[in-house]
Design a protein that fits this description.
single chain; about 425 residues; Rossmann fold; 2 domains; globular; binds glutamic acid
Length: about 425
């Protein structure tokens, strides 16, 4: 194994450093601290799938369940060549904090398959998804652990998981199980507003920040990294404010346009050509130029560890709203604090997805379907309340937003552990 692989930054180390900082500041109970510093279950499965050419390939899938003190394990599944146990552990832990901050009765989990989905046909992806669901078997369940979409997964994949899971339960229980996954297509029991929910939550947080800082979003310039579900929805929703999207970066490269890129046309373009580069009227720029773009707001909505010792000094923005999970590493975070760039942390900023997953779960349990404006209103109320609670905590503890967000989550878990105690 090469040294560079061994030296790769551990995302989970970032989580533990963030956790320790908050736990020290709030003097978190020592026993609770020990419990929350480890995961509950770590499931790793290797499973065979027949490819279109008749050959068999073996895939590796993960599901890490961090904590379920506040409710069933909950969190997405991602399909990506970089998926590994360390990353999934970090993402599962962030899910526990996320649900606790926005006060929904879920714990935290995350999973995924190590693969590049662009290399497989739709029918191969269907067989991979179904076989993974079969391998997880009753490690997931509607009242136990509820997956959802994440990077490179979508409502169609959730529908295949649902269908496979239902085939594994006795016929008379099937109607009681459709909340085994959220983020389903609306026709298969999904919620209106779930698809845009993460992006919508990010925009609600940006609106709160703008109110707090007397900042006029109408004349704002912003840049987005990642143009998948989260990035593209943020861009489409920011349009209603008149804010200008001046640069976007994705796996194909980065583009820039001083007088603004049209988010709807860019979505169409990405759907057709698979990436943002060569979007008509835009100029192609390199990664460094993209990161240095002068703008008001940066929305990282791609993967972890993008804002680091190398890239944090380049940024030329007032606010970073973390659409992705973990886009800023520990050193990057310190540099941003020194440079007084505001950050709305991931576990608050992108919690809109899991919040509307909760609404979907409730609708399924009650056989209801809510109107879109009902979903949006509830989401706005919940995320705004969480935003205010985190803001108050920054003041109470004289600390940064990320640490304050952790303190809000950890306080909630600490109370529950103290009330319930530890068995036996
Ligand atoms: N994958 C999303 C997240 O990271 C949503 C999780 C969910 O809805 O369970 O927050």
């Amino acid at each position: 194994m090469s040294v560079s692989i061994l030296k790769k930054p551990s995302v989970y180390d970032n989580v533990i450093r963030q956790f320790n900082k908050a736990a020290d500041l709030m003097t978190l109970d020592q026993s609770v601290r020990k419990i929350l510093a480890s995961t509950t279950n770590e499931i790793m499965v290797n499973f065979p799938v027949k490819m279109d050419n008749g050959c068999i390939e073996i895939f590796t899938g993960y599901r890490v369940q961090h904590n379920n003190a506040l409710g069933p394990f909950k969190g997405g599944l991602r399909y990506h060549p970089m998926v590994n146990l360390d990353e999934v552990r970090a993402l599962a832990t962030w899910m526990t904090w996320k649900s606790a901050i926005v006060n929904i009765p879920f714990g935290g989990a995350k999973g995924g398959i190590r693969l590049d989905p662009s290399k497989y046909s739709l029918s191969e992806l269907e067989r991979i998804t179904r076989r993974f669901t079969f391998a997880l078997a009753h490690n997931i369940g509607p009242e136990y652990d509820i997956p959802a979409p994440d990077v490179n997964t979508n409502p169609q994949i959730m529908a295949w998981i649902l269908d496979t899971y239902l085939s594994m339960v006795p016929p008379k229980e099937r109607q009681r199980c459709i909340h085994v996954v959220t983020g389903k297509p609306v026709e298969s029991g999904g919620s209106l507003g779930r698809n845009k929910a993460t992006g919508q939550g990010v925009v609600f947080c940006i609106e709160e920040w703008a109110k707090d800082n007397d900042f006029d979003l109408d004349s704002a310039k912003y840049i987005v990294q990642g143009f998948g579900n989260v990035g593209s929805w943020v861009a489409r929703l920011m349009k209603s404010h008149g804010a200008r999207l001046i640069a976007v970066e994705d796996v194909t490269g980065a583009i820039y346009k001083q007088d603004g890129l049209n988010p709807d046309a860019l979505c169409e373009f990405v759907r057709e050509y698979g990436g943002v580069v060569n979007f008509p009227g835009s100029e192609k720029v390199d990664h460094e130029t993209f990161m240095s773009t002068e703008a008001d707001i940066f929305i990282p909505a791609a993967l972890e560890n993008q804002i680091t010792e190398e890239t944090a000094p380049l940024l030329n923005v007032k606010l970073i709203a973390e659409g992705a999970n973990g886009p800023i590493d520990t050193i990057g975070n310190e540099i941003l604090q020194e440079r007084e760039i505001s950050v709305i942390p991931d576990i608050l900023c992108n919690a809109g997805g899991v919040m509307v997953s909760y609404f979907e779960w409730l609708q399924n349990k009650r056989s209801e379907s809510w109107e879109l404006d009902e979903v949006d209103t509830k989401l706005q109320k919940k995320i705004t309340n969480a935003y205010k609670r985190v803001k108050e905590t920054t003041e109470d503890f004289n600390t940064d937003w990320r640490t304050a967000a952790y303190i809000v989550a950890l306080s909630r878990l600490e109370v529950v552990y103290k009330e319930r105690g530890i068995f036996p």
